[in-house]
Design a protein that fits this description.
- The protein has 3 domains: 66 residues, Multidrug-efflux Transporter Regulator, Chain: A, Domain 2; 105 residues; 156 residues, Intergrase catalytic core (hpI Integrase, Chain A, Orthogonal Bundle), CATH 1.10.443.
- Strands 1-3-2 form a 3-stranded antiparallel sheet.
- Helix content is 49%, strand content 12%.
- By secondary structure, the chain is mainly alpha-helical.
């Protein structure tokens, strides 16, 4: 077995002997202790050295070695950004946690981790990802913005998990970060639409002037469909004709939130509305259930703008609270007959950025 001393490695890497000794002392560079002439020295196995070098250094550039040393200590912002595509790919393919993460979660991770890096400033103090830097970023976010604070926390924790899997982060530091998990201390704002408010929204859709009968029926069907089924805007836009079984009264949601499949029933009030819509939709050959007047798939942003225009015409202003987790109880027929509806929350999100004045 061949060994190298710290002076030889320091010369190869262009670093000082003291730096290599500190790496050995911290256990960062695998080595064996040895006393020579009453002085502590380190011996490094040549195979372990080459494995360590391939993992933590990028190679020679312009005659010098670019440092790519301990990830949680010496990576700069640009180097971290270069690691982000692989991290997000691991999340999407299930390499990181075993379960693939949905595309919406990937977008959230990407946006809020860049938000975290931006909050650190141009020349942040190393290490980039640490307890101190995370405290600094949390201190710049208002405590009322619980959602932002939580999204930043989730993105950072996912990235540190990726670093641990690549042997670039300390588990102890991640455990310390867990203690900084944002906690809600202000009560969550609840938004409940009454039966009168829902009727006013439907009345606004019916009175809204459209250039074609199909567009008017599409608006009415969309609002009643989301209220009755509770599907999110992305799920509505991705719904296909084959996913709706009118005879069985079942809607199949394929790869919805969290990449999960589920079934939703079609109520007796919604079925005739869908029948009227499908009669007008016969001229389009698209596989998607809801299409625009050109016969193309609906886009979530387009859907939001569509309802914004309707709301502005009739001054129906809805608060943009994204509270999907909280079900709304709405009396559809009598006060004694209540139905749990998540669709109203979808309507709330669609009608951005307005406030309730009903």
């Amino acid at each position: 077995m061949t060994y190298l001393d710290t002076d030889t490695i320091a010369k190869k890497l262009g670093l000082s002997s003291r730096t290599i000794q500190n790496y050995c002392k911290d256990g960062f560079l695998p080595s064996e202790r040895q006393w020579q002439h009453g002085k502590l020295t380190y011996q490094i196995d040549i195979d372990s050295y080459h494995d360590w070098k391939r993992k933590h250094f990028r190679g020679v550039k312009h005659g010098s070695i670019n440092r790519f040393s301990r990830l949680d200590r010496e990576l700069g912002k640009n180097q971290i950004r270069e690691l982000m595509p692989e991290w997000l790919d691991w999340c999407a393919t299930g390499k990181l946690g075993g379960k693939p993460v949905g595309p919406r979660t990937i977008e959230i991770y990407d946006y809020y981790f860049n938000y975290f890096l931006k909050r650190l400033g141009r020349n942040p103090k190393l290490p980039i990802v640490s307890v101190d830097t995370f405290r600094k970023v949390l201190g710049t976010i208002p405590v009322e913005s619980f959602s932002t604070r939580r999204h930043v926390y989730d993105a950072v924790m996912s990235f540190t998990k990726y670093l641990i899997e690549t042997n670039g982060f300390e588990v102890e530091t991640r455990e310390k970060l867990r203690k900084l998990r944002p906690k809600r201390f202000l009560p969550a704002r609840k938004t409940v639409l009454t039966e009168a408010q829902l009727e006013k929204i439907i009345k606004a859709v019916e009175d809204y002037k459209c250039y074609s009968v199909y567009c008017k029926q599409l608006n009415l069907t969309l609002i009643k469909f989301m209220v009755s089924t509770g599907l999110r805007t992305s799920e509505v836009c991705n719904l296909k004709l084959a996913d709706v079984d009118m005879e069985a009264g079942v809607i199949k949601v394929i790869l919805g939130k969290g990449n999960k499949n589920r079934k939703v029933g079609i109520s007796s009030e919604l079925q005739p509305v869908l029948v009227e819509y499908l009669k007008l939709r016969l001229k389009y050959r698209s596989n998607y259930f809801f299409v625009n007047k050109q016969g193309n798939q609906l886009d979530p942003q387009y859907l939001s703008k569509r309802f914004q225009r309707i709301s502005k015409k009739k001054l129906i202003l809805i608060s943009p609270h994204m509270v999907y987790a909280e079900p709304l109880l709405l009396s559809m027929q009598t006060k004694a007959n209540h139905l749990t509806i998540y669709g109203l929350l979808v309507v709330i999100v669609v009608l951005l950025p307005l406030k309730v004045t009903v």
